[in-house]
Amino acid sequence: MDARIARAEIVLPAGPDLAAAIAFFSSRLGLRVEAISPADAPVAATLAGHGVRLRLEPGAAAPGLLRVACEGAPPPAEVAPNGTRVEFVAASRDVALPPLEPRFVLSRGGAGASWGTGRAGMRYRDLVPGRLGGRYIASHIAIPEGGPVPDYVHFHRVRFQAIFCRKGWVRVVYEDQGEEFTMEAGDCVLQPPGIRHRVLEASSGLEVVEIGCPAEHETLGDLDMALPNARVDRARLFDGQRFVRHEAAKAPWAPWRLPGFEARDIGIAAATSGLADIRVVRAGAPGAAARWTHAQELQFTFVLAGTARLAVEGHGTHALGADDSFVVPAGIAHGLSGASAGFEFLEVSVRPQ
């Protein structure tokens, strides 16, 4: 389409009494009148609010259904003077979590990896097929062509969500976090529930790893917010979590919980009050090996560089290389051995809830 869209609206019949219809939508539903015509004897009006724009005009099609989300107990349905049925439903902010279905998952990267095409031409690779019963999603996302990203200010209803920049760079902006900034390879952000944000531009060959809970969650636009916004409050809590921007170039390495490895802490544990933890871990020397079990709800590992062998109790031994990933359920012994020089991986843990 060559024309540039200026606005969009839902057209409803004005009904036999336009004034009564306007009064219902403005006083009962809190919509504001944006336009009315003609001024001396109105026959049409446009009202807007709560993320919707209605155009009332004579001769329009069927009156339709308008669903309104309410705080508290919703009242009974009503019929507006123009015939539109209005249903009131509860506006739940709770995130529904499907029951966890733990299992061992090994996803292969490299030339044999299976990619699909998602929104805006982005390429997606599902790193946890089956998604542990719908509880978690982990995606390897690639944008082959760089440039401005056709995104808008939006937010997610999630329990947990983090983005790790695998390759390239991406320019983003977040609510209350100041000016836009650029994430580069190795950087990571925690996107707390409800934080407004927008992706502005990406390099050619951008790749990110995204982890979220639950696997299926709502993404909602916020058409009334412009970013960056004037307020800066980097300590603000969003549903009990604080935004985190981890810059790999500034992060120190420290000994990991297992000998032979070291890690840099992304800062997620402190920002989520211990709900989740993310670290980048690397072998301190070629041949490093470790064996352990865990008690987490999720432990997801994505190989960033190098090679090693993964042994999982009851599931055999597997060679690992760059872009391979795995999930090992709680209580199952597993280990890494034969790490090559430069072996490095991303580890994401989420505690039981």
What is the CATH T-level topology of the largest domain?
Answer: Jelly Rolls
Q: What would CATH call the class of the largest domain? A: Mainly Beta
- What shape does the CA trace take? elongated
Low-pLDDT windows of residues: none
Domain count: the total is 3
How large a portion of the residues is in β-strands, by DSSP E? 35-45%
Mean pLDDT across all residues, rounded? 92
> Quick one: CATH superfamily of the largest domain?
Jelly Rolls
Bin the helical content: under 10%
Main beta sheet strand tally, sense and closure: 7 strands, antiparallel
Spatial separation of the terminal alpha carbons: 48 Å
SS class:
mainly beta
Largest sheet, spatial ordering of strands: 8-31-28-33-26-25-24
What integer value in Å does the Rg equal?
A: 25 Å
What does this structure look like?
There is one protein chain. The protein is mainly β and about 350 residues long. It folds into 3 domains: about 10-90, 2,3-Dihydroxybiphenyl 1,2-Dioxygenase, domain 1 (Roll), CATH 3.10.180.10; about 115-245, Jelly Rolls (Sandwich), CATH 2.60.120; about 255-350, Jelly Rolls (Sandwich). Helix content is about 5%, strand content about 45%. It is built from 3 helices and 33 strands.
List keywords for this structure.
seven-stranded antiparallel sheet, Jelly Rolls, 2,3-Dihydroxybiphenyl 1,2-Dioxygenase, domain 1, single chain, mainly beta
